[in-house]
Specification:
Elements: H1 2-22, E1 26-27, H2 31-38, E2 43-49, H3 53-66, E3 75-80, H4 85-92, E4 104-109, E5 112-117, H5 127-141
Parallel strand pairs: 1-3, 2-3
Antiparallel strand pairs: 2-4, 4-5
Amino acid sequence: MNMDFNFFMNDVVKQARQDMVESGYTELTTPDGVEEAFSKKGTTLVMINSVCGCAGGIARPAAAHSVHYDKRPDHLVTVFAGQDKEATEKARSYFTGYPPSSPSFALLKDGKICTMIERHEIEGFDAMNVVSKLQQAFEQYCEEY
């Protein structure tokens, strides 16, 4: 039974990763990768991915659809909480003032945290509510494309 569960979880993780990459996000799996990505000029949207069923199933579609907007981040990246632990820990070190939360979104500008959309702002809402929250942040902090 446990072996079947591990296979199931591996499939869930693989699909969750694939969803983000297919949506145009760069996967960050190491602390060095996080540092390199966060050192880029401009705005960076970080999606903290998670296998959490309900909230993750809302956050990933919201991440995909939110970037179809006049103002959007310059860079799209993702770390996977519970999977790429060191990369996630490094990313969270940039999110000063915010407790660990997954799934969640962080918007950075020139490597500094601007705002976050935390799990409690995702769970219990539908994907379009989260898209709206993300696009409000883009409106405030991002340049028009």
